[in-house]
Amino acid sequence: LHVELTCFVLFCFYLLRDFWAGHQGKRKCSLWFNSVIPAGGSVTLNCSVEGSAGWNVYWFRSDSVSSEIQLIREGETNRVISVSQGGLYRCRGGRGDPVYYTEESNEITITETASKPKAKLTAQSLIIPVGGNVTLTCSVNPSSSSGWKYYWYSVEKSSEALTTQDAVFHSNGQISVSQEGLYRCRGGRGNPVYYTEDSQSVRIGKTGEFVFTNNVK
Fold it and tell me: Could you read off the pLDDT of 160-185 as tens digits, one per residue?
């Protein structure tokens, strides 16, 4: 009798829970933001779920109303992200196994300012000494701007970024090259990646070769 009573109580509990959930509807998300991305910067998006804790957040982005919606972050416990690319953003919460999802949040529009920052390339020297190398430095203005990853290119490799087979990479936006060529760089940060404009190109030559010392624009 005790077992039957316990089963009956549990049955009533789950029945009432499902009834309440069905009439209560899905929980809602709210998305808070700063709508304009400064040149070379980023904005913070905050997704909040009403009610209890324990929600993971799913982030979505599209280029326009008519374009495909893409999932850019999945099941993150952090409800705050920084984005550096314009577009339409929304979020929703999810928890449990199988996952129970909230309603999607309001959709917001993030716009970028017109001008992108430009990367700057400087060379330790325009001539590679015999058996040596030259250090190249890539930077982004303003100097207080942080979080950039740098991408290096040469005319010889077309649009492909340089790899460790082409140069020695340092951690502070510098590389060392021992091959002559025309080099350029750009900065990128965020997810999706926001890129700066390419730097001016700099031609590096070897000892004994004539090098035009003006930077190529």
Answer: 789 888 899 998 799 999 999 999 99
Indicate if the alpha-carbon torsion angle 79, 68, 196, 43 is positive or negative: negative
Distance CA 107, CA 180 (A): 50
What b-and-e string marks burial along 198-213, b requiring 16 or more CB atoms within 10 Å of the CB? Answer: ebebbbbbeeeeeeee
Q: What tokens appear for 12 in the block?
A: 């009533």
pLDDT single digits (tens) 134-147: 999 999 876 556 78
Structural domain boundaries of the chain? 25-112, 119-206
**Are 202 and 217 within 8 A, CB to CB?**
no
Shared fold status for 25-112 and 119-206: yes
Q: How far apart are the C-alpha atoms of 94 and 101, rounded to whole Å?
A: 4
The one-letter amino acid code at 130 reads V
pLDDT in tens, 39-82: 667 788 999 887 778 899 999 999 988 899 999 999 888 889 88
What token pair was written down for 21? 């959930």
Q: May I ask the CATH class of domain 119-206?
A: mainly beta
Task: Report d(CA 214, CA 69) in Å as an integer.
Answer: 46
User: Alpha-carbon distance 205 to 90, whole Å?
Assistant: 50
DSSP result, 93-158: EEETTTTEE------EEEEE-SPPPBEEEEES-SEEPTT--EEEEEEESSTT----EEEEEEGGGT
